[in-house]
Amino acid sequence: MVKLIKIAFIAIFLGNSVELLAQHPGGRMFSPEKFEAALEQFITTEALLTPKEAATFFPLYREMRKKQLGYIIDQRRFRHVDIRNEQMCEDVIRKADSNEIKVKELQQIYHNKFLEILPPSKVFQIINAENKFHRQAMKHVADRQFRPHDVNP
Fold first, then answer.
1. Most CB atoms within 10 A, among 50, 105, 122, 126?
2. C-alpha span between 31 and 85 (Å, rounded)
3. For the whole model, what pTM was predicted?
4. For residues 25 and 86, is the Cβ–Cβ distance under 8 A?
């Protein structure tokens, strides 16, 4: 159960990280292409992927992320819920739970595919690198958006 909660958090984070990164101070817009390129470079470096391993791995990885993104985008619709409507709230909770499970099932399917083309140690390093990248990206965004003078003591 704790693992499922962590996965749900990661799925929600992935969806929200794009939106948070888009709100860059100074007017610069977030570039999904640059984000993906930085993520792939980080994974390649952290997991010590050879060029051949990277060439085999990343097409599958991109396929997985594209499929997951559909569920994550669907999650964004859930922010606009009339909290006075109990049925709507219940429907959103059930749909969000279902989406999170589907994201996790996709992840499991693709992890198995990764294990067919890479050693388990590399897949483990890739998973850790992806998580580390997202934590660092979120911290970077949070650090840029938090301004102590915005907080009233």
1. 126
2. 36
3. 0.72
4. no
